[in-house]
Amino acid sequence: MFIDIDCSQEKKYGQNAYGDCFMSKRYPERKELIAVLSDGLGSGVKANILASMTATMLLKFVEAGRDIKSTCEVVMNALPVCKVRKISYSTFSLAVCGEDGEVKIVEEGNPQFVYISDGQVVEPEFTVIDSETFKNRHMHVYKLNLKLGDRLIFCSDGVTQAGLGNPDLKLGLRRNGLIKCLLERIKENPDITSSELSKSIVRLARNLEVDRHAKDDISCCVIHYRNPRKALIFTGPPYHMEKDREYALEFWNSKSKKAICGGTTANLISRELGIPVKTDITSSVGKLPAVSYMEGVDLVTEGILTLTRTVEYLENGFNEKQSNAAYELMEFLLNSDYIEFMVGAKLNQAHYDPNLPIEIEIRKNIIKKMAEILENKYFKRVIVRYL
Length: 387
Hints:
The protein contains 10 helices and 18 strands. The protein is of the alpha+beta class. The chain folds into 2 domains: 2-226, PPM-type phosphatase domain (Phosphatase 2c, domain 1, 4-Layer Sandwich), CATH 3.60.40.10; 230-386, Rossmann fold (3-Layer(aba) Sandwich), CATH 3.40.50. The strands form 4 sheets. Strands 2-3-4-5-9-8 form a 6-stranded antiparallel β-sheet, with helices on one face. Strands 1-11-10-6-7 form a 5-stranded antiparallel β-sheet. Strands 16-13-12-17-18 form a 5-stranded parallel β-sheet, sandwiched between helices. A hairpin with a 7-residue loop joins strand 8 (127-130) and strand 9 (138-145). It starts with a strand and ends with a strand.
């Protein structure tokens, strides 16, 4: 099973920093994922520091195999004390998720997470661990076994308290309102991604506020166990020309979604397998070459220029749809979970044309950077093979 995870956030209106912090990391060799959502006391920079410290320490300690109770005590004792309330405070939700469905969750102070299975909310049992230092703090520990299709939704109180004081929501959205909205979204779209669902909940919480201005930091993290969507990208000709047909057949026979990045690579596949490649000149936008079409391949683009622009989109984010090959490639990647790159190691003399922009990197470096962004920012599983 693949663990699809994403978190959407909105800052408190008028603040320049998030008071909530979300961190997540995959461990392919251990076949698990660790995620932390922390909510710092107050808002703005102070809350950001508290939340970031909490999330960082929890992630590092759990990664190192430290005991949960002692880890939480160390974290709580390490936080600076608020001069007004005389407490060191940052609530948190910690989830350690195995790819086999075994999940351990520790919550302290955050709204209780929502567990949805087969379209129904499950209320699992838990044990309570009392803090030895802070008598008013109690950790709830859950041990779950999730199956294909199950979801876990975590949020900060900016979601459950959204709309507080409104005539129709005097006590805010609360957990019951969140559950109702989640079930409606999933019923409307059973295949909704974690990214789409988390964005939907954050948008809902913000829109419940007066003038749609968030009164608190809003965060929603969604974890979804599902079948992985696999993608294969072939870019650049292999170093040994005599292996062209071997790699072309491997690419063609893959059951993953397929993309080709590079005119030379597309011609190689066309030549070795006898499949014509056609270019749509109407799709050329600005300095980016047009997309091409090949039967049996989901996307065919130019190489270095398109890859470079795609890295920019992935790294800097995007506000609106672009009608070019790089945007199509970005969507192709983001709509995949397991992404494999077949990268040819043969040098392409066109890359050394002095008339090309000086910022263009060679293919290997571009793919390396793209893989890092996909893994660290978008939580994808990426494999890079050099041919």
